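In response to reviewer comment 3 from the previous cycle, which asked for concrete evidence that the modeling workflow produces usable outputs, we include below a single protein chain processed end to end. The sequence was submitted unchanged, and the resulting C-alpha cells are shown without manual editing.
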Amino acid sequence: MGGMKSLFLFSVLTLLTVAGFGLGVSQPAFAAAPLTYNLQLDLDVDASTLRGQAKISYTNTSQRELKTLFFRLDANSEAQMDVQEVKTKDGLVLPAKNYAYEYLEQQVADPYLFQVFLPEALKPGESTELDFRYQIRHLPNQKGSFYLIDDRQRLGLGSWYPRLVPFRDGNWQIYERVPADYKVAARASKKLYVISPLAPVSINNTDRSYQYNVENATEMSLIYTPDLLLRSSDAEGMSIRFYYDSSLQKWAPMTLEIVQSALRFFRERYSAYPLKRLTVVSVDDSRYPVVAADQLLVLRNTFAAESDEAVVRRRLSEHIVYGLAQQFWGYQVSQPPEQMPWIAQGMSLFLAQNYLQDKEKKPFLLGEALTRDYLRAARQGWNTSLLPSRTALERMPYDSFTVLAQGKGYTIFKQLERLLGRPNLLKVENQLLTQYRTRPLTPEALQQAFEQVTGKDMEWFFGQWVRRGDKLDYAVQSVQQTPSGGGVRATINLLRLGQITMPVSVALKLDNGETVLKLWDGSQAADRLIVDLKRPLREVIIDPSEATPDVNRANNRQSVQPLPGM
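The workflow returned the following C-alpha cells.
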C-alpha cells in the first residue's frame, strides 16, 4: 500500500477516535455475526471492469444504536473501486460517500473507507439490508485471467466487494473480518471459467453464469480464467487443485511434488494439516512471491522452460512452504487485526527456512532478502518498533508489510532460535497452536510462552526487538598486538553503536590460518578484549557467520598489521 494512501487511512482512524468512534485494540470475537453477502458480478473482459451488485444483510449485535455504517473498499489499493448507489430493501436511496476528514486544512476523501447514513438508527438486535451498486475499473489481470483475491493482508485485492466494518466493544473494528454467509453469481462478457477455493461451482451454460455458496467464511476469492490448465492430486488427506498457464507446463509436476513434500513436513511437525482442500495457482507476475488466502495460494512463477532446474526447485520450495505455513500462522492462529502481523509472517517464514534446511539442504534466500529489507530501513533511521498500531505503521514511507511483518518478523524468530535453540521453538509452536487456534495471539502472549518453555525472563529481548525500534550495530574500533612469551598479546577494542544488546562471537584469525573464537556479550557501549595468542593476528571479525542482524557489517572487521620479525 502506498505511503499517501496509508496516510489517508491513518488520518481517518485518528479522526474517528477523536469523534468518539475510536478504533479499539481489543481482540476480535470469532463467533459468527449475522451477516450475509449476496453478490452479483458481471465482468467486462475487454474493459477490465467488474460491475457488481451487493445485497448486504446485517444485524446490529452491539449495545449501541448505529446511525451510520462503514464499509471497506480494499480494492482501491490495486484498482479503482467506486460505489455508485446504496439503497434500502424498500428502494430508498441513502446518502453515502467516502469518509472525509480534514488534513492540512483541506477536506480529504479516504479511498478505503465508505460511509452510509441510515434513514433511522439501527438499534441493538435490529437488522437492515442494503443494496450496493458498484464497479471496479482497471482490474489487474494476468494473460486474460482476473484474480479477485480476498486475502486479509490485502496483498491481492483484499475485499473486492463493500465489506462491512463491524462495530464492537464501542469501537469500529476497521481491520476485523466478520464471518459471513456468501452467495455469489458471477458472469463474464467472454467465455471464462471461474474458480473459487472455498465452494463448488454450479454452472448455467445458457448465460455463462457461475453460482457459489459458502457459509461462515471471513473472505471469498474468485479467479476468472480463460485457459488455465489443471492438475489434481491427493496428499496427506488433502485434495489439491493446481492451476497454471501452459507456458509453465514443465514445472507443474515439480510444483505438485513440492506441495506433497511440504505437507509431509507439516504432518511430521504438527501431526496434521488444518485444511482438507487446497487450491494453488501459478502466475508469472506478482508483487509478492506468494499470496495466501483461505484455502488458496497464488504463487509467483516467472521461470522459463530453459531455466536451471535446481534454481526453480529452490524458489518454488521457498514460496510454497511459506504459503502453506500461513494456513497455520495467520489463518488458524492470527494476531489481533489492528496489529502488524509480524508473528504470523515471521513464524511462517521461519518454517519455510526449516524446510529448506531439513529437506533441501539449501539456504533460505527469500528470508535473507527480507532481512536485508528490514536492515535497510533500520540503517536509514526509520522507527521499526512493532508496538504502534498497524494503521500508524502503514503510513511509514516504505512497504511496512515487507519490512516489518516479513523482514523483522522473520529476523526475530531467527534470533530466538539462535538464543534458545530450535527444540524450544518447536515446544512454543505446538503450545501456541493448541492454545490460540480460536483466538488471536498477542506479542505479550508470545513472550509469556517463551518464558514458560525456557524458564527465562525474555523481557530484555522483546523490549529491544518488539516494543522499541532499536537497531543492532557492533564495530571493531581498533586492534593492537605486542610480542608476549613466544606469542602475542592482542588488545581489541569493540564498540556497540546500536541500542540492541545481544551476545555475539568474535573471530580472531591468525597468520597461520587458524581461527580463535571468543564470545562478547555486547552489553557495554565500549569494551576491550585482551587475549594471549600463540601466533600473530591477521584479522578480527565480529559475527563471522553473520548470525546477527547487524545494520552495518562494513565496520565488523579490521585487518591487523604484521609484527616485525614474526
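The longest helix spans residues 400-420. We consider this sufficient to address the reviewer's concern, and the full set will be provided in the supplementary archive.
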